[in-house]
C-alpha cells in the first residue's frame, strides 16, 4: 500500500487510517480499532487502525500522521506493508493485575518493555495503570516496577561521586521551587543534572515552566555538555530516553486523572536512577486539598520512597511541607516562571513563601550532601541573596540554548470577593482546575495569579485572583467555573 500524509495531531497515540472499502483491510479482517503493524524502510510501527469514508483516502492508501511518518522515515506516497502484529504475551500479566494478582519482576519487565517499544494501545496501557491505582501498594512490586522502568531506557553516569536531585510529589499549584534549588545547589559547586516531567494532572510541570525560559528538549550528549559546563541543568525527561515508558504512562494517567503511589514512586525513582543521581531530597506537600491529604499519608509515602530507594541504591531524604495553599502567586507555566525569576532576582515582587520553600529545600540538599544544618541554610541564603544563584541560573539557560522572557496572556479577568472577610482556605484542586480550563499547561501564558493568602483580610469587590488566558473562549470557561464555585477561596466573617 501507499502512505498518505495526514495533518492530524494525535496527542502521542499511534493511529493510522484506511478507507472503509480498502480490499486489504477486508481480506485481512482489519476492523476499526484493530492493532496493525506498519513496515517501511526497515522500520516497524504498531498502531491502532481507524476507518475513513468519503474521499479522504484512496482504497490503496494508509493515512498516517506526520509525526508517525518521521518515525518510519517515510515520505508521502511511498510504499509500505500492513500486517497483523504478533500477539502480546505480556497482556496476560496485565489481566492478572486487573484481577488482583501481584506482578513479579519478569512480568513487569515484559510489560514495560512492550510499552516503551510502542506495542501497547492506549486502552491496554490504561488497563495497566488502572490495575495499580485500584490495589494497595506492595513494596516489592513497586521496587520491581522501578527496576523494570529503569531497564527500559538509557542510564547516565557522572564523574562526581555525589549527584544531587530533588523531586516534589505534586498536587500543590505554583510549587515551582526546582529552578531556584538547582541554581543554588549548582552555584554551591555540586552536580545537579535535573530531569523533570511535564504536567500530569496539574496546570504546569517543571519542564513546562522551564520551557518558557529556555529549551528543555535536550538529548543526552547536550545535557551532559550543560552539566559539564555549569554543574546543573533542568531538562525534560522525555527527551533523553532515561525512562521512556514513564512519559507514555504519564500521558495516560493525565487522561484518566489518576496517579497511583506505586507508579508515582517507580516514575520518580527510575528517572533519578537513570539520570545518575545518588542523593535525592523529596518534597511532600501535605494539606486537605493537596495530593497528600494528611501526615499519615505522607509518612506512608515517605516510607515507600525511602524503602524502594534504598533497595535501588539511592540515599533518600524526605521533607513534609505545607500543602494547605498554593505556593507563590502564579499558577501556570509562564506565570510560575515570572515568580521564579523574581525570587532569583531578589525582587520585592518575589513571593516570600516560594523563596522560603526553595531555600529550605536547597539547604536540605546541602545537608544531605554532608553540610551541617546551620551551615547549609546560611550557605543557601548567601548564594541567593548575593546573586550567585541568579547568575548560575541564567548561565544554565544559555547553555541549554538561550534564555527567553516568559510570555503574558492576552486575556485576563478578575474573580473578586463577594463580601468582606478573612481568607480561610483555598481549594488547591479546584484552583488547578480553573487554571487548566483557562488553557494551562498547553497554552504557556494561561493560568491564575493569586492576590491573597490565608489569613488576609479583604473587602467586598477586592480581587482574589486573576484568570489569564490566550483566548476568549477559554477565559469564559474558566470564569464560569470559578463563578459557580465561590468556595474555591473560602472566606470567614471578619
From TrEMBL:
**Stored InterPro entries:** Glycosyl_Trfase_fam3 (IPR000312), Glycosyl_Trfase_fam3_N_dom (IPR017459), Glycosyl_Trfase_fam3_N_dom_sf (IPR036320), Nuc_phospho_transferase (IPR035902), PYNP-like_C_sf (IPR036566), PYNP_C (IPR013102), Pyrmidine_PPase_CS (IPR017872), Thym_Pase_Put (IPR028579)
The UniProt keywords, alphabetically, are: Glycosyltransferase, Transferase
EC number, as in UniProt: 2.4.2.4
Q: What class of enzyme is it?
A: transferase
Query: Do you know which Pfam families this protein is assigned to?
Result: Glycos_trans_3N, Glycos_transf_3, PYNP_C
Q: Does the keyword ATP-binding apply?
A: no
Q: Where are the transmembrane segments?
A: none
Work out whether the entry's keyword set contains Glycosyltransferase: yes
Domain of life assignment: Bacteria
- GO molecular function terms attached to this record: 1,4-alpha-oligoglucan phosphorylase activity; thymidine phosphorylase activity
Name of the protein in question: Putative thymidine phosphorylase
Amino acid at each position: 500500500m501507499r502512505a498518505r500524509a495526514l495533518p492530524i495531531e494525535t496527542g502521542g497515540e499511534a493511529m493510522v487510517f484506511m478507507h472503509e472499502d480498502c480490499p486489504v483491510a477486508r481480506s485481512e479482517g482489519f476492523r476499526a480499532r484493530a492493532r496493525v503493524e506498519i513496515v517501511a524502510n526497515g522500520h516497524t510501527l504498531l498502531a491502532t487502525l481507524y476507518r475513513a469514508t468519503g474521499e479522504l483516502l484512496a482504497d490503496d492508501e494508509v493515512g498516517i500522521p506526520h509525526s508517525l511518518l518521521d518515525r518510519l522515515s517515510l515520505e508521502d506516497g511511498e510504499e509500505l506493508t500492513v500486517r497483523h502484529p504478533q500477539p502480546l504475551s505480556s497482556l496476560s500479566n496485565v489481566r492478572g493485575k486487573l484481577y488482583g494478582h501481584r506482578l513479579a519482576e519478569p512480568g513487569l519487565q515484559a510489560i514495560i518493555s512492550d510499552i516503551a517499544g510502542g506495542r501497547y494501545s492506549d486502552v491496554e496501557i490504561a488497563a495497566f495503570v488502572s490495575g495499580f491505582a485500584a490495589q494497595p501498594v506492595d513494596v516489592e512490586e513497586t521496587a520491581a516496577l522501578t527496576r523494570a522502568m529503569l531497564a527500559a531506557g538509557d542510564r547516565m553516569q557522572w564523574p562526581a561521586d555525589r549527584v544531587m536531585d530533588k523531586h516534589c510529589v505534586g498536587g500543590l499549584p505554583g510549587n515551582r521551587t526546582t529552578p531556584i534549588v538547582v541554581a543554588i545547589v549548582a552555584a554551591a559547586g555540586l552536580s545537579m543534572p535535573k530531569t523533570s516531567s511535564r504536567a500530569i494532572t496539574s496546570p504546569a510541570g517543571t519542564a513546562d515552566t522551564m520551557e518558557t525560559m529556555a529549551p528543555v528538549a535536550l538529548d543526552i550528549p547536550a545535557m551532559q555538555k550543560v552539566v559539564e559546563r555549569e554543574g546543573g541543568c533542568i531538562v525534560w525527561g522525555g527527551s533523553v530516553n532515561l525512562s521512556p515508558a514513564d512519559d507514555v504512562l504519564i500521558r495516560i494517567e493525565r487522561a484518566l486523572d489518576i496517579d497511583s503511589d506505586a507508579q508515582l514512586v517507580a516514575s520518580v525513582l527510575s528517572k533519578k536512577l537513570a539520570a545518575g543521581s545518588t542523593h535525592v531530597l523529596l518534597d511532600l506537600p501535605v494539606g486537605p486539598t493537596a495530593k497528600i491529604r494528611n501526615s499519615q499519608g505522607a509518612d506512608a509515602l515517605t516510607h515507600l520512597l525511602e524503602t524502594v530507594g534504598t533497595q535501588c541504591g539511592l540515599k533518600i531524604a524526605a521533607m513534609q511541607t505545607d500543602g494547605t495553599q498554593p505556593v507563590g502567586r502564579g499558577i501556570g507555566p509562564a506565570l510560575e516562571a515570572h515568580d521564579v525569576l523574581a525570587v532569583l532576582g531578589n525582587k520585592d515582587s518575589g513571593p516570600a513563601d516560594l523563596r522560603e520553600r526553595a531555600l529550605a529545600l536547597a539547604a536540605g540538599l546541602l545537608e544531605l550532601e554532608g553540610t551541617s544544618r546551620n551551615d547549609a541554610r546560611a550557605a543557601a541564603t548567601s548564594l541567593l541573596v548575593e546573586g550567585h544563584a541568579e547568575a548560575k541560573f541564567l548561565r544554565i539557560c544559555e547553555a541549554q540554548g538561550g534564555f527567553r522572557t516568559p510570555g503574558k496572556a492576552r486575556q485576563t479577568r478578575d474573580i473578586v470577593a463577594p463580601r468582606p472577610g478573612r481568607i480561610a482556605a483555598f481549594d488547591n484542586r479546584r484552583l488547578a482546575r480553573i487554571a487548566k480550563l483557562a488553557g494551562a499547561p498547553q497554552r504557556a501564558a494561561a493560568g491564575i495569579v493569586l492576590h491573597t493568602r490565608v489569613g488576609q483580610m479583604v473587602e467586598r469587590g477586592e480581587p482574589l485572583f486573576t484568570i489569564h488566558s490566550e483566548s476568549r473562549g477559554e477565559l469564559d470557561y474558566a470564569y464560569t467555573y470559578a463563578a459557580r464555585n465561590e468556595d474555591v477561596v473560602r472566606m470567614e466573617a471578619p
